[in-house]
Design a protein that fits this description.
Bound molecules: 4'-deoxy-4'-aminopyridoxal-5'-phosphate, glutamine
Radius of gyration: 22 Å
Strand order of the largest sheet: 2-11-10-9-8-3-4
Structural class: alpha/beta
CATH superfamily of the largest domain: Type I PLP-dependent aspartate aminotransferase-like (Major domain)
Largest sheet: 7 strands, mixed
Family: Belongs to the class-I pyridoxal-phosphate-dependent aminotransferase family.
Shape: globular
Cofactor: pyridoxal 5'-phosphate
Number of helices: 15
Strand content: 5-15%
Order of helices and strands: HHEHHEHEHEEEEHEHEEHEHHHEEHEHEH
Domain Aminotransferase class I/classII large: 69-447
Pathway: Amino-acid degradation; L-kynurenine degradation; kynurenate from L-kynurenine: step 1/2
CATH topology of the largest domain: Aspartate Aminotransferase, domain 2
Number of domains: 3
Catalytic activity: an S-substituted L-cysteine + H2O = a thiol + pyruvate + NH4(+)
CATH architecture of the largest domain: 3-Layer(aba) Sandwich
Distance between the termini: 56 Å
Helix content: 25-40%
């Protein structure tokens, strides 16, 4: 009998199972057949996956577990979702008389969920949304991104991607056979603490990436990892190019509720002439601090939503009914208290996160990093160039931030993310002098990080 190793790749190159929690510790005898089969031409992965094998979450999620590191890396809260949403999930699974809540629901989204999403987003989009035709549900915002890219983009199309970008945009576009054209946000301020608003697109550089072949632009607002909340004039500049080159805007807005200070989140879909060319994405995982629930939505005109639904119905068919029911009920409740800023989760979470953001910025400044203070989202970029740490060669050709982050995890037991993963190969140098911290963590977790920094600083003086 063949015993499969759950950690190492088994059989063929793309059948890699990485277990991040406990089972990685299980020691099993390995019968590896990797080499034997990889030489046989047909028993291997599809060519279109070439170059997409590395994944920053897989590597650094595992490293954090292996080293029992304090985790300010991968973006997830270390606290529970709001109790009322948990209660609704339990009720949907076990407390309801409706046995159908454990069966398949409508392919494109559970009716109760799309109805409440239409209510939530109609005022923000400045139009009355049709729940059945303007909204589609998939497995997390990842699933919605996949449906949008596979459902709307043809091989050979060009897709403009704003850097730094959520890492999956690049492989998704490439797997669809399209050609990514990258344009970076660049910090315009050269010294001192930065704000995410100091990261700007150069209008000339941006337009130079558009051509007759451009099918879409992908933006992330608020941006992961910078935390930038695009201003109205910045969105207008992007909107004007979308209209000039007649292309789609894929606007990933999963951090839409986490907006700090007096900043305002504006949906590009609400600008004149943009509704008909924009898909806007949201995520229940981000909205309700429940990243493991993996439920996302796309909002847009029926001519763009329909192809996404066609893709979804044949690849995924439908998403878990109890999760959709619980999220729907949760949103209904939040909508009913939306005028109570400190009670409604859609607004109270940002109020809770702001002091965490500020505490982290203080800790980072004290150790000598230069943080970019985010206007939105729950990540913080920090410039590490002043630390001048001589990282031992780890035998890879990876950018400096990858080496630094591995070192930090192994030596200081602190896990963070290397932002050059959010840049294409030619622009990795723009990301490698930073690291990304996640601050949607309990105060005690952030206090432990501060202790690590303090000990580190004290040891530097010795
Ligand atoms: N977009 C961005 C910018 C993200 O950071 C994430 C992280 N989860 C996603 C999309 C995917 O969201 P989900 O977990 O809902 O699939
Ligand atoms: N979106 C999360 C982040 O940026 C995690 C994504 C993932 O783990 N795949 O950290």
């Amino acid at each position: 009998m063949q015993v499969l190793n759950p950690v190492k790749s088994v059989g063929i190159a793309f059948a890699t199972y990485v277990v991040q929690s406990t089972s990685h510790k299980t020691v099993l005898p390995i019968i590896s057949c990797n080499r034997k089969y990889s030489k046989m031409s047909k028993l291997r992965g599809a060519d279109r996956l070439k170059g997409t094998e590395k994944n920053v979450w897989v590597e650094f999620g595992k490293l954090a577990v292996d080293y029992k590191a304090l985790n300010l890396g991968q973006g997830f809260p270390d606290f529970k979702p709001p109790q009322h949403v948990i209660d609704k999930m339990v009720h949907a699974v076990d407390g309801s008389d409706n046995a159908l809540l454990s069966q398949y629901t409508r392919s494109y989204g559970h009716p109760r969920l799309v109805n409440v999403l239409a209510k939530l987003y109609s005022p923000l989009m400045g139009r009355t949304l049709d729940p059945m035709n303007n909204i589609t549900i998939s497995i997390g915002a990842y699933g919605v991104l996949f449906c949008a890219i596979q459902g709307l983009i043809n091989p050979g199309d060009e897709v403009v991607i704003v850097e730094p970008y959520f890492d999956c945009y690049e492989p998704m576009v490439k797997v669809a056979g399209a050609i990514p054209k990258y344009v970076p946000l660049r910090p315009i301020k050269k010294e001192g603490v930065l704000s995410s608003d100091d990261w700007k697109l150069d209008p000339v550089e941006l337009e130079s990436k558009f051509s007759a072949k451009t099918k879409a632009i992908m933006i992330n607002n608020p941006n992961n990892p910078v935390g930038k909340v695009f201003r109205k004039e910045e969105l207008e500049m992007i909107a004007n190019l979308c209209k000039k080159y007649d292309c789609i805007c894929i606007s990933d807005e999963v951090y839409e509720w986490m907006i700090y200070d007096d900043n305002k989140h504006l949906k590009i879909a609400s600008l004149p002439g943009m509704w008909e060319r924009t898909i806007t994405m949201g995520s229940a995982g981000k909205t309700f601090s429940a990243t493991g629930w993996k439920l996302g939505w796309g909002v847009g005109p029926d001519h763009l939503i329909k192809p996404m639904q066609v893709l979804h119905q044949n690849c995924i068919y439908t998403c878990p009914t109890p999760i959709q029911e619980a999220v729907a009920e949760g949103l209904e409740y939040e909508l009913s208290i939306q005028d109570k800023k400190e009670e409604c989760y859609l607004t109270s979470l940002a109020l809770e996160l702001k002091p965490k953001r500020d505490a982290l910025a203080k800790s980072l400044t004290e150790i000598g990093m230069i943080p970019t203070i985010p206007d939105g989202g729950y990540f913080m970029m920090a410039d590490i160039s002043n630390l001048n740490i001589d990282i031992p060669d780890d035998g890879t050709k990876d950018p400096y931030d990858f080496k630094f982050v591995r070192w930090l995890c192994k030596e200081k037991r602190l896990s963070v993310i290397p932002p050059s993963a959010f840049y294409n190969q030619e622009h990795k140098n723009l990301g490698e002098k930073f690291v990304r911290f996640c601050f949607i963590k309990k105060d005690e977790t952030l206090a432990k990080a501060d202790e690590i920094f303090k000990e580190w600083k004290a040891s530097q003086g010795k």
